[in-house]
What we know:
- The protein is built from 18 helices and 15 strands.
- By secondary structure, the chain is of the alpha/beta class.
- Helix 12 crosses helix 14, helix 13 (355-370) crosses helix 14 (376-401) and helix 14 (376-401) crosses helix 16 (418-448).
- The chain starts with a helix and ends with a helix.
Amino acid sequence: MKKLIISCFFALLLLFGGVSGAQADQYLRVGMEAAYAPFNWTQSDKSKGAVPIEGTRQYANGYDVQVAKKVAKSLGKELLVVKTSWTGLIPALTSGKIDMIAAGMSPTDQRRKEIAFSDPYYLSEPVIVVDSQGKYANAKSLVDFSGAKITAQQGVWHVNLISQIKGVKAQIPMGDFSQMRQALSSGVIDGYISEKPEAMTAENANPSFKMIKLVKGFDFSEADAGIAVGMKKNDSRIDQVNQVLTTLSENDRTQLMKRAVDQQPKEKKDAKSEKASFVEQMWHILKVNWKQFLRGTGLTLLISTIGTFVGLIIGLLIGIYRTAPKSKNKTLAILQKLFGYFLNIYIEIFRGTPMIVQSMVIYYGTAQAFGISVDRTLAAILIVSINTGAYMTEIVRGGIFAVDKGQFEAATALGFSHGQTMRKIVLPQVIRNILPATGNEFVINIKDTSVLNVISVVELYFSGNTVATQNYQYFQTFSVIAVIYFILTFTVTRILRYVERRLDDDAYTSASNQAALEEVTNA
Length: 523
């Protein structure tokens, strides 16, 4: 039975986790968002020179991808794209999760403190993307944006350009371009600063966006406008990379970008789709992308289920330990107390810090500090498990203290050890008492797996966001995701309530049978 469970577990990892069997010496692992067209994007097939994305059944394409392919070929390797959030790119590189970054990244002075850069392989100018039907659709210069709500991508040099607009209502920088496009579509912002190729992509893919090429624009340096390959400091391959980039003439780069713009994903609209209702549009998105949603849902369930179960085991073990009597041996008593302090530190840290921060520290930090590289799916399960364990420990402790003290005293009088008392008397009651709280943790874990997208775990939110960057229908796509999350949590809640009723019925039946047996015996 145990072998069967273990086999099923690894089968699920292979199915939903996308565990890659790629050898490190065979592939050049390049990190990018794969959601920043025309520099890089995600597509469902390998057409037009696309390359596989690690851990998924999807492919990446774009200007960055084609440049990276030339670099990989010169190094005698195959290109493998590692889809990574923007904020995770540099940690992924410095921790050894990827070999290089090719993600439309500018070699700013701040970034040069952390990593090295190749020579620029593209130069671009900053522009502003606005609503094509909005107040600023006819703007010509920075002066025209006085009073406008403008933002830019977090961690990008564009943020520093906002202050050049006099009278601007600077907005908080956003995580990626999909968020900014969504905010622009909903009217939350009036525009966002972008590079010309990305703005052309947005304009071509969705007619509600318009690129404003300013007559009198921003002041910026060539270092900021340049786009280069990011590499580890002292990486001996940087000269070889630069040599490859020198073979690309200005005309080659122009043609490569033109081809990327022409091939980028576009929102396909026809008369029928434009007349479709919001629900019909959601249904169409689900029909076209159901495989991606299914894969993301499967991984979300895998991580949350195993994480909740392991977290419950951790909580039970720590709960039993913390209620154990002190040892009469002084040395053992001191060790017991020290271990108790360690457990308290674990509980306080993981209850007092967000899971998104824990994910970055555990996945990237351990690799950078200790050289320990863990598969991202296994890392996700570990993160959810230890986080849940910290919460379940307190829940279990409350469940144990809820058991009447008389039962402990009776067990002691009968000669039961602490372990026997817990196993045979206390824990069966505790498990029933904490079942609602455990179910609540399960529901929370289903939703909180969405933060794991920062370490590129292809769970439901990550999959849905990928779809949104392909079809530009953000409201419809995220509404589909919301419905799936609701179905998951609603179903889990109903199943757990059914289990609670069955346990209560069994307890009632057992009590009735025991009372009847006692009556017969007394008679």
